[in-house]
Design brief:
It is built from 3 helices and 6 strands; from the N terminus they run αββββαββα. The protein has 128 residues and is α+β, with helices and mostly antiparallel strands. Strand 5 and strand 6 form a beta hairpin.
Length: 128
């Protein structure tokens, strides 16, 4: 079982934080080929029995692509896809009570990789 404080400490000890708020940590990952990808981990359900982390990474803005492009680029994706403000994102949810902090690495890498791949497949350059 992990706590938000343990997650924050683990991330700060192992990654370079770009931005931090009370419930968010933002990181930028090098995805190879001179590309990078923004990933955010957000604490949700604070103070509830269902406290969780949402790992998300943008790959387009809502006005950049059509719904058919969105379906085409994400139809084989094993992760969730959603909207965070004006951004379309790849996301993954993990419950804190079930999370081992070492699993954070996998979540970061998975959403970063899938979002970067979607961005490439859409031909949008390296925006995020």
């Amino acid at each position: 079982m992990a706590t938000w404080l343990e997650v924050q400490n683990f991330v700060k000890a192992n990654y370079q934080i770009q931005n931090e708020t009370i419930d968010n940590l933002e990181l930028v990952f090098n995805t190879g080929d001179n590309r990078s990808q923004l990933v955010v981990v957000h604490r949700s359900g604070k103070g509830m029995d269902l406290e969780c982390l949402i790992f998300w990474s943008p790959f387009a803005t809502v006005d950049q692509i059509s719904s058919s492009q969105l379906v085409s680029v994400t139809e084989d994706l094993a992760l969730g896809v959603g909207r965070m403000g004006k951004f379309l994102v790849v996301k993954h949810l993990a419950f804190l009570e079930d999370l081992d902090v070492s699993e954070i690495n996998k979540a970061f890498l998975l959403v970063a990789s899938e979002a970067d791949d979607a961005e490439k497949r859409l031909g949008l350059g390296d925006t995020f």
